[in-house]
Amino acid sequence: MSTATKISRPRLAPGSIVRWTAIAFALFWSLAPIYWMLSTSLKTELEATRLHPTLWPEAPTFANYIGLTGTSLPFVAFFFNTVLSCLLTAVVCVVIATPAAYALSRARFRLAGTVGYTILAFRMLPMVVVLAPLYLLLLNARLLDTGTGLVVGFTTFGLPFAVWMMKSFVDAVPIEVEEAARVDGYPRWQILLRVVVPLIMPGILTTGTFVFMEAWNNLIYPLTFITTMEKQTLPAALVLTFTGQFKTDWGGMMAAATITTLPLMIAFFAVQRSMVRGLTSGAVAGA
Amino acid sequence: MTADVITTNARARPRARREPWLDWMVLPTLIVMAVVVGYPVVYTILLSVQDYNLLDFTPANYVGAQNYAKLAADSVFWQSLLNTAIYTFGSVGIAALLGLVLALLTENLGGARFRAVRTLLLMPWAVPFVVVAFLFRYMYLQNGGIINAVLLWAGIINDPVPWLNSAMLALPAVMVANIWAMAPFFFLLVSAALSAIPNEVIESARVDRAGTWGMIWHIKLPFLRNPLLISSLLMVISNFNDFAKIWAMTQGGPGYSTSTLVIYVYRLAFESFEFGYASAVGVIWLVMLMALAWLYMRALRMEKR
Description:
heterodimer; A: mainly alpha; 2 domains; 14 helices; globular; B: mainly alpha; MetI-like fold; 13 helices; 71% helix
């Protein structure tokens, strides 16, 4: 490989200019909007809505961020509502999905294939189709307008995804490592907990992060199931307040948007490396 | 059919015996899904043959196929269906192409440089959908939006363009935001698929003096076909479901120009509370989506062979 690149390097010289230009363009396309969000969040309301936008904030200020905590709108509560409901969803999904993924990976019971594909089919259901019945279900269970109801909603799409992604991680664990424990007579659930779970910990974290991110992205469930403003999540709060408070306050809006983005960015980069593996070996490429 | 998929897929499974208690481990998942997914689906089908309206005080009546007949003559439904198709296939197609090109461009950067570029290129993917929507909505502003400002400055346009307020431009404008957010996914996936091509294949092609294009066309693309197909189908399905971006940018407007099926069903169910009719639209859509899901699973199985 290395010799081959050495040979071809002189030929690449003109091509590499084209290539780096293209990469520079791609970087600009990817990062310019994010820069715009950050820079606007540091502008005053007046500067953010100016007819001729300034590329760099004239007098950078954190007033927009500070303003989020002091307004009549409970942004701090929105933030914790979102973090809490998304984290809880991730934990619930991973805990229920781990034994299921293990069973689907290891067992050869007659329905394993059917059950596996049924779970996958659930994953592909249009969210909005189950929305009305789910709403009535939560209404009857008195879970409407509660965090629990929201977690139930998020679980509808998080769980099938988690099962399939985790299965690919369990598939990668050779069955031989379980043999010793099995010879010693440990029951299966202990083998799962003591042998398999530690081995697939990166997979568990990746899956959990994915479920977390998807819940964070979900707008339709909080918008539908939560009616009290104080219980709302960040994405829904952005939509609901934009019609009121932020109608023209784009600086404040972008500050709120930045706060909404931050936890997701952190989660994303924390698992970036194992995510590539999870995506290619698992849920997407289909192991 | 499904059973042999499982067995051929099994890497180290010959020892596994039939152990009934393994079934129990799937049970919690199945119970939860039966309640939160299975039951709502059945309920949707039942609702779709009733005239159930949450605001009516009269109890729901069985109306048979009436909702479905109404749907066939509903021009908003057909427009929403068309918009969904344009939005979904257009965005996914372009995003996949962009991801492919980016992955090929960055393929031989190697080591630290590649990781740095990749991290930066992936960032849009970590931006929440709602934020994508508001960010682009801000950039699309007719007066004071950066996009119009730049285009005016460059002399490409003479008057500010009302991107999101024009029935013709709104859908493409929303698609651009969607492509921005989705292309990194394809980039990541194609990059991974490229690195999985066996070295010997690349080497022997090089010995045969394959040019850059020949290499891409005849050697690399065949290896990328399946991963691209599967991830495209997956993205098609998730774009069919996309609510956050469209809702936060245009709410389906102006008029119904950016209304997709999700938006339409949402409006029917939660603005006019016509649960019965909304369910009928949902059921039709369910059937179409299940056809796509079936295709996806077939592609998955073919991949395994």
